[in-house]
Specification:
12 helices; Butyryl-Coa Dehydrogenase, subunit A, domain 1; 411 residues; Butyryl-CoA Dehydrogenase, subunit A, domain 2; 41% helix; Butyryl-CoA Dehydrogenase, subunit A, domain 3; alpha+beta
């Protein structure tokens, strides 16, 4: 039993055992198709169908949306989503496909939407029946989020949306989008408002989704064109002009705050999935040769692998610290640190794996001679997206320096 499990309340102990028993009895079958490394790279309906079925099953069992009130489709169990997450990770279950819905849209809708909208949207979000995407980045507004120009013009009790969003993960499957829009061109921050908009039902009627092919060959990213999409004012979250404040709720959860998020690790231990962490890196080193001996016997390589093990352990302890308010000297510091470090540790681990593989790292998916099924080169290429998403590493360091440490802005 983990240290955290020892600190569970009696009700949480009972819930943890329930999760453990249910997961033991309801482990899903191996996927019929190869799954991508994460939900953000889902490409085919076969992949999505398998993962949606798993999320619906876990939701029906009470393992998703645990901390939300029952009135909006949640479990009404305060402090229990963490436990369900830990048990799903420990059981190495598949990841949940609605990662943007669970990690970003759900808390934003819960804290800022009107009650009827919460009750309408959240149950199908938790169950995975409705996939969500995020409409923040634009061709001219990536890291400068406050500069978005996709415009919503008032038309009675409706809004007409025109503009262009890009790098929109899962938009090719999404029913709904959380979106930051400009409603007043005369103010940078106060001219922003936040909406939820239906996009799948509006395809060809004011919405166009175009896949973007990544260097991995996957199509998880998309661009979304809005050309006169009309939405009701009831889809607006919070007050007009408060979009920047609502967006901060989204970003805080995207960067790792709170217990309301989907599990970010795990996956079936089969040829179809692969966890790119130090545990699998050690296994790779043991099974790879260098000068006729296992690569794990190289003392320099062993030292570098252990540095990754240590960094992963430190990150895990930092995540635990984020749950103890008395240990937080600044409300954003740990979350920003974790996002920055998690993305860079993953990238460094994948890069080290390619060194371990040597020339074999040039072999890709589908090559029967590729170590670990060619997943490490895929992980390395995908890692660059994670050091850009939710604010680039450079932006994260600037925020930490200026807003957390109080350093002057660079000139």
């Amino acid at each position: 039993m983990s240290d955290q499990a020892n600190k569970d309340t009696p009700d949480q102990v009972e819930f943890r055992q329930y999760c453990r028993d249910w997961l033991h009895s309801n482990r899903p079958a191996d996927p019929p198709v190869r799954l991508p490394l994460s939900a953000l790279e889902i490409m085919t309906t076969q992949q999505l169908d398998y993962l949606q079925t798993w999320q619906k099953s876990a939701y029906d069992a009470g393992l998703i949306g645990c901390d939300y009130p029952q009135e909006v489709g949640g479990g009404g169990r305060s402090g229990c989503q963490r436990i369900a997450n830990e048990e799903m990770i420990g059981a190495r279950t598949p990841y949940l496909p609605n990662i943007i819905g669970l990690g970003m849209a759900a808390p934003t809708v819960f804290y800022h939407a009107q009650e009827p909208l919460k009750q309408r949207l959240l149950p199908r979000l938790f169950s995975g029946e409705d996939i969500w995407c995020q409409g923040f980045s634009e061709p001219g507004a990536g890291s400068d989020l406050a500069n978005v120009q996709t415009f919503a013009e008032r038309k009675g009790d409706k809004w007409v949306i025109t503009g262009h969003k890009v790098w929109t993960s899962l938009a090719h499957f999404a029913e709904w989008m959380i979106i930051l829009l400009r409603t007043d061109k005369s103010h940078k921050y106060d001219g922003l408002s936040y909406f939820v908009v239906p996009i799948r039902s509006a395809l060809g009627k004011g919405v166009t989704v175009r896949p973007l092919i990544k260097m991995t060959g996957e199509t998880g990213f998309n661009e979304v064109i809005f050309d006169g999409l009309e939405v009701d004012d009831s889809y607006r979250l919070d007050e007009l002009g408060k979009g920047w404040q609502v967006a901060m709720t989204t970003l805080l959860h995207e960067r790792g705050a709170g217990e309301l998020q989907t599990p970010r690790a795990g996956g079936l231990k089969s040829k179809s999935t692969h966890a790119t962490n130090s545990t699998n890196l050690i296994e790779l080193a043991r099974n790879s040769e260098r000068d006729g001996k296992p690569a794990a016997d190289d003392p320099l390589l062993r030292d570098r692998i252990m540095q990754q093990v240590i960094r992963e352990a430190g990150l895990a302890q930092n995540q635990r610290r984020a749950r103890v308010p008395d240990l937080l000297d600044h409300p954003m510091r740990v979350q920003l640190q974790n996002k920055l470090l998690a993305s860079e540790i993953a990238q460094q681990t994948a890069a080290l794996a390619l060194e371990v593989q040597g020339a074999s790292a040039s072999l890709y998916l589908g090559d029967e001679n590729a170590p670990a099924g060619g997943q490490w080169p895929m992980a390395y290429m995908n890692s660059y997206g994670m050091t850009i998403a939710a604010g680039t590493s450079e932006v994260q360091r600037n925020i930490l320096g200026e807003r957390v440490l109080g350093m002057p802005k660079s000139k």
